[in-house]
Design brief:
The chain is an alpha/beta fold. Helix 1 runs parallel beside helix 12, helix 8 packs parallel to helix 9 and helix 11 crosses helix 12. It has a ten-stranded mixed beta sheet with strand order 2-1-3-12-11-4-5-10-8-9, sandwiched between helices. Strands 6-7 form a two-stranded antiparallel ribbon. Strand 1, helix 1 and strand 2 form a beta-alpha-beta unit. It folds into two domains: about 210 residues, Isopropylmalate Dehydrogenase (3-Layer(aba) Sandwich), CATH 3.40.718.10; about 130 residues, 3-Layer(aba) Sandwich (Isopropylmalate Dehydrogenase), CATH 3.40.718. It contains twelve helices and twelve strands. It binds 1,4-dihydronicotinamide adenine dinucleotide and magnesium ion. 1,4-dihydronicotinamide adenine dinucleotide binds next to helix 4.
């Protein structure tokens, strides 16, 4: 069988710096676990604009459609702030998400023991936390029509429309139920069915998909405002949370920050299964290009490395190797390795991006 294929798009700012560490991790799995990927690399964002005048070339887009998974660093930076909207670095990422139809955005909130005191919540509330928010990413109020600002009489009116079709709700709920089966088999669906018809439909369709296809998974429903409250009150009651684009945007940021630094947070965006059964997939850290620390060796590579761990788990069915990599990250944190973003008020000497990579490789060994 052919090796699984990966397209690496390091992008801008600290993207290439953190991706260099991921490449070493990928090489480690090739050398030590017989897990060899066909890796290709291309440009995205400002890096692509600088060379080609576009944030993503058609060739790079076509390549992304062909490979088993895409790994992306970050895009953007002040250098590109004044560019026309149509060629802004972010457009490269949006094009990937849209053309690959990546409707299911997975954002884990996992508390690494060594960082439990880093959270703004009490130690006991977050210690051992491991939840996954599944956010619908390609529809809902961010895309619904009608939209815009117009004049009614002598005042302006702003309009956005929350719109979901049955099939859009069905496919993201399937994605959540599939995930739950690989975890603690529990899904909580969040909407506002008490005040929104789209929420009523959401609740009905999630329940129908559950009853017909996933009766073995434990399903509950919660209003999203209560969900927000519960996330900070007792987050460990959840395993997988599935919700729409808008609520998911807010709830996933909230949940993610329960656990510490932006430099720690991975994500996956999944689409429909390809011919080989693997989902269309793009993995990326949640953070941006961090221009304030670019080129200084200060970036924390863990978010990007954990994004590769998600690829192992969700694209390549390599759950054991994903556990191994996540365990290595736990290990180095427990041993006290800290990049600058993980320094607490007590201070200490931070290690560099490469030194964090070294530590993780040593832990893998
Ligand atoms: P950012 O995530 O790049 O940085 C926010 C803060 O967190 C900065 O102080 C940064 O130094 C720090 N930080 C982020 N990642 C870190 C890491 N791995 N290690 C250590 N510290 C880290 O967000 P910001 O500053 O709002 O945006 C900067 C640029 O990135 C903008 O051009 C923005 O449009 C772009 N961006 C791109 C994203 C993407 O590619 N998916 C997501 C968010 C922002
Ligand atoms: Mg957001």
């Amino acid at each position: 069988m052919a090796n699984p294929s990966l397209l690496i798009l390091p992008g801008d700012g600290i993207g290439p710096e953190v991706m260099a560490e991921v490449r070493r991790v990928i090489d480690w799995f090739g050398a030590n676990k017989g897990l060899t990927f066909d890796v290709s690399e291309d440009l995205v964002g400002g890096a692509s604009y600088d060379k080609h005048g576009t944030p993503l070339t058609d060739a790079a887009m076509a390549k992304a459609q062909e490979v088993d998974a895409v790994l992306l660093g970050a895009v953007g930076g002040p250098k590109y702030d004044d560019l026309d909207f149509s060629v802004k670095p972010e457009r490269g990422l949006l094009r990937l998400r849209k053309e690959m139809d990546l409707f299911s955005n997975l954002r884990p909130a996992q508390c690494f023991d060594a960082l439990a005191d880093f959270s703004s919540l009490k130690h006991d509330i977050v210690a051992g936390l491991d939840i996954m928010i599944v956010r619908e990413l390609t529809s809902g109020v961010y895309f619904g029509e009608p939209r815009g600002i117009h004049k009614e009489g002598n005042e302006r009116v702003g309009i956005n429309t929350q719109r979901y079709t049955e099939s859009e709700i069905a496919r993201v709920s399937r994605s959540a139920f599939e995930l739950a089966r690989k975890r603690s088999n529990k899904v909580c669906s969040m909407e506002k069915a008490n005040v929104m018809e789209s929420g009523v439909l959401w609740r009905d369709v999630v329940q129908e998909i559950h009853d017909a296809e996933y009766p073995d998974v434990e399903l509950s429903h919660m209003y999203a405002d209560n969900g927000a409250m519960q996330l900070v009150r007792a987050p460990k009651q959840f395993d997988v949370i599935v919700t729409d684009n808008l609520f998911g945007d807010i709830l996933s940021d909230c949940a993610a920050m329960l656990t510490g630094s932006l430099g720690m947070l991975p994500s996956a965006s999944l689409g429909l299964p390809m011919a080989n059964g693997r989902p269309k997939a793009l993995y990326e850290p949640v953070h941006g290009s961090a221009p304030d620390i670019t080129g200084q060796g200060k970036a924390n590579p863990i978010a990007c490395i954990l994004s590769f761990a998600m690829a192992l788990r969700y694209s390549f069915d390599e759950g054991d190797n994903a556990d191994l990599l996540e365990g290595a990250v736990q290990q180095v944190l427990a041993d006290g390795a800290r990049t600058a973003d993980l320094m607490g008020p007590e201070g200490g000497t931070p290690i560099s991006t490469t030194e964090m990579g070294d530590a993780i490789l040593a832990a893998l060994d």
